[in-house]
TrEMBL record:
GO terms, molecular function: oxidoreductase activity, acting on NAD(P)H
Organism: Leucobacter ruminantium
Swiss-Prot/TrEMBL keywords: FAD, Flavoprotein, Oxidoreductase
Protein name (database record): FAD-dependent oxidoreductase
GO cellular component: cytoplasm
Upper taxonomic lineage: Bacteria, Bacillati, Actinomycetota, Actinomycetes, Micrococcales
Cofactor (UniProt): FAD
Length: 385
């Protein structure tokens, strides 16, 4: 192949890409794999960015074991021409545009934080190592920090910044924390854990406007109250990083839709040599549903299964959905499918360790588990499935 032609090109050098490249090598693929990422610090792990990397800032916390035969090239992908099988890159070193030809293209560009329409410039967000370092620099002993959004990242941030001595207020329009992850279960418990470490929780918060600048923010609430902060962080969710694909013709309803084996679908047509893995993907399930995940385990699983598919192996069975988060000194793990209307019961308890395992059984027969400091039990359940 010429200098500008590659067998496999991967855009994004994170969890999904790492799992894909490592598995492909394990399956004896010896061709060149070009991986590009626009973030000059990649590869690194994201989960510590809201946890240990904020409280004890050692870079080892985010180190990744990346396959030595798969170098990461720092470049931004700006377009794909699916008919010509070419990818356009802007190279970080020169700033110049380069067009490369691929046999197989894997899109693994993850997600980018959502910005609320009322958010002025200067409100921080957390997705990259640089974001985490900026938050850490601005926060600290006695700083008044407002966190908008009490999903996993917001609740973890609140925990970490409170640990380093910031005065944290967390606000969410929902009436409890971790609403999307726990779909209504254990909201009062999580809320009391956050309060017990000194976090001021404002649920059902109606933010009408945000004024100010870094160092002096005012958040106006619908009930007439005003909250003042030195630092304001928005953690209201993330959307798939597909903006660069807008002219490619690869998006369906604005989504990078993929079939269960990872092929990109354009309408009902399947692209034979373009694939998607990780947070960027919306999966078209056989039952007609569409599913998008934002989880380390799902991204890794997508990568492994795609490598097996590309290598002509039968891909392993889909794993049971899994997510973990560390909130207010507790490890919260969610396994399986939680239904809002599901019946929740305690399946195991060890008060001495603060461990408890709940089972949530949906009216449709679905099963899910919530573990609080119950890592061994969740590990056993994962192995059994
Ligand atoms: C702060 C934080 C904490 C988290 N904690 C947990 C947790 O506790 N448990 C859990 O299960 N999950 C957690 N997650 C989620 C988990 O990290 C993600 O699900 C996972 O990183 C997704 O991996 P990915 O490979 O799909 O994409 P990403 O990790 O998002 O990486 C995508 C990469 O693509 C690059 N990219 C994007 N666009 C372009 C382009 N046009 N050209 C070139 N490169 C591009 C980006 O720079 C990025 O490096 C957390 C996420 C964050 C941000």
């Amino acid at each position: 192949m010429s200098q500008n032609e590659y067998g496999v090109v991967v855009v994004g050098a994170s969890v999904a890409a790492e799992a894909f490249a490592t598995r492909l090598r394990e399956l004896d693929y010896e061709g060149e794999i070009l991986v590009v990422d626009r973030d000059s610090r990649m590869p690194y792990e994201r989960p510590p960015l809201s946890k240990l990397y904020l409280t004890s800032p050692a870079t080892t916390e985010i180190d990744v074991e990346w396959h030595e035969t798969v170098p990461v090239t720092i470049a931004e992908a700006t377009d794909v021409d699916a008919d010509a099988s070419t990818l356009t890159l802007t190279m970080a070193t020169s700033g110049s545009a380069r067009k490369i030809k691929y046999d197989k293209l894997v899109i693994a560009t993850g997600a980018t934080p959502i910005r609320l329409p009322i958010e002025p410039e200067g409100v921080m967000r957390l997705r990259t190592a640089e974001d985490s370092e900026r938050i850490r620099e601005a926060a600290g002993e006695g700083q008044r920090v407002g966190i908008i959004g009490a999903g996993a990242i917001g609740a973890e941030l609140a925990t970490s910044l409170s640990t380093i001595g910031s005065q944290v207020v967390i606000l969410d329009k929902a009436d409890r924390p971790l609403e999307r992850l726990l779909v209504g279960h254990l909201g009062a418990d999580v809320s009391s854990w956050l309060q017990s470490i000194g976090i001021d929780c404002r649920w059902s918060a109606d933010i009408v406007s945000i004024e100010g600048k870094p160092g002096a923010w005012s958040v106006m609430l619908g009930d007439g109250n005003r909250l003042d902060f030195d630092l304001l962080v928005s953690a209201v969710g993330a959307r798939p990083a597909t903006a660069w694909l807008e002219n490619s013709g690869l998006l369906t309803d604005g989504q990078l839709l993929c079939d269960p084996s990872g092929h990109v679908l354009v309408g009902s047509e399947r692209c034979e040599n373009i694939f998607g893995i990780g947070d960027v993907v919306t999966r078209q399930l056989d039952n007609g549903d569409r599913l998008r995940t934002e989880s380390w385990s799902a991204a890794a699983e997508h990568g492994i299964h795609l490598a097996e598919h590309v290598a002509g192996k039968e891909a392993g069975e889909a794993e049971v959905p899994y997510f973990w988060t560390d909130v207010a000194g507790r490890k919260i793990q969610v396994l399986g499918t939680l239904r809002r209307d599901g019946a929740i019961e305690v399946e195991f308890e060890n008060p001495a360790r603060g461990a408890i395992l709940y089972k949530v059984t949906g009216t449709d027969g679905s099963e899910g588990w919530i573990g609080i400091n119950a890592q061994p039990r969740i590990a056993m359940l994962r192995m059994a499935r």
